[in-house]
Amino acid sequence: MAIDSPPQSSESRAEIVRLAALATGDEKHEASSYSTLDALTVLYERVLRVRPAEPGWPGRDRFILSKGHGPAAYYAVLAWRGFFPEQWLPTFMHSGTRLGGHPDRLLVPGVEASTGSLGHGLAMGAGVALTLRARGSDSRTVVMTGDAELNEGSNWEAILLAPVLRLANLTLVVIDNHTSSVPLVPLDGKLAAFGWAAETVDGRDHPALERALRRRTDDRPIAVVADVEAQ
Amino acid sequence: MTATMRSQSAVTVVELMDADPRVSVVLAEISVERFEDALRRHPDRAVNVGIMEQTMIGVAAGMALEGQLPVAHSIAPFLVERSLEQIKLDLGNQELGAILIGTGGSYDYSTEGTTHHSPGDVQVLLSVPGIAVHVPGHPAEVDVLLRDAHRTGGLTYLRTSAAENAGPRPIDPGKLLRVRTGRRGTVVAVGPMLDRTLQAVQGIDVTVLYVTTVAPLDAAGLAAAAADAAEVITVEPFHEGTLAGSLAAALADRPRRFLHIGAPRRVLRNYGSVDDLDRAAGLDADSIRSRISEFLRR
After folding, report:
1. Could you report the per-residue pLDDT of B63-109, keeping only the tens digit for each?
2. Interchain CB distance below 8 Å, B54 and A154
3. Starting at the edge strand that comes first in sequence, how are the strands of the sheet with B231-239 ordered?
4. Which residue does chain A place closest to B66, by CA atoms?
5. For chain A, which domains are there?
6. What number is the ipTM of this complex?
7. Domains of chain B (ranges plus CATH)?
8. Taking CB atoms and an 8 Å cutoff, what residues of chain A touch B57?
């Protein structure tokens, strides 16, 4: 889909919000769920190459929700794309559900990696990207973290490593809802200093998100800081 | 040059890599010199991530998500204890296969102090459901067990050490091996503890079983081999009692007395040769003999 294609996201977003509201539970992580909603919508509507009927299709792009927290929006987007029926959503976090408080790849179609403990996704994403490159695949790997998640030092290991490995097929999306107790400003500057092609965009602006998330370089990983309102 | 368990592990892994494009290697600086050729020939399957043990395991898990069988290797405390959550979550909970090769045994870095000791590696790894743990006692056994880990494709920890037995035994991966038959109890010797155990029990009428796979333990083999033993003694190269639960479960059919000899559960602040530390830990043949004799007299 071309960048200048007709905007669809407002309708899609409304539908995804409806689906996310179907998900209920004792601990919904609502703030973190909804902070990711626009970036997830744009990724799954306009950026990622996926086949919901064939979740393991080798040619797909890989998406890892590193933070794992607040998966209601993630589940809603996956249901919206048809990875599983929306009837699953009201079972969120209930006994017998496949949709837990943090996503499990062995339970949820479309989930590439099980996450929830912060700071695991980016290193896994680097391993995925490295292997895809070794196979000559043009699939990309997108890893989403939160800003506070970047307090975990393991992220910074992977942030240091990915540019050294020239993982141009790896994209880091940081949902910056300003929850980090440790100041990260300027986050895009920090990432750029580590060698990433980094920029900050309005995390609610779908065209801006789409442009940033579609960006590729020849030899550097991409970092998109999606700035959203403080929680 | 005579192979060590550590050097043999690198040789076997590179051979597996050359033969099978599914095999990848992730290093965290340690042993890079042993994999130089592989790093050059397979740059996207062999990677040195630098001194980043957590990332080493995370990258390996990412490779495994794509169907590779990654091998990760470092000195045991940094491979196992520093990155334990990555091993638990990225590999174990995701049910991904990988081969983790630890070097350094419990006290091989005998002059380096406690930061480089790892007598607790196997105990903590036993908390990861489904992991296989191999403790070879000779370089030739390293080769056998690594090829078996490659064949099975599951999550495996292989523990190498400087201490080794004089010769290899005809091991069958996963199975224990009866080395000696006696009537006064059964001694289970793990990996590099075998030779010193045999030395320690000279003149004592005990059965000696050799174990190189401690998880899953060969419970049926143990139950059969130790069926009549009222006394069961383990000689472990890691924290003593690491295998206590597995042994008790395998031998629950009747009351027995157990003695677990292994690395003591205290910080060993000694420096010196590996032999010096073994003596300090009570893992030399004389100390083992003394404890077994005393136990059997009671």
Report:
1. 999 999 999 999 999 999 999 999 999 999 999 999 999 999 999 99
2. yes
3. B177-180, B207-211, B186-190, B231-239, B257-263
4. A128
5. 9-52+59-227 (3.40.50.970)
6. 0.95
7. 5-159 (3.40.50.970), 177-297 (3.40.50.920)
8. 123
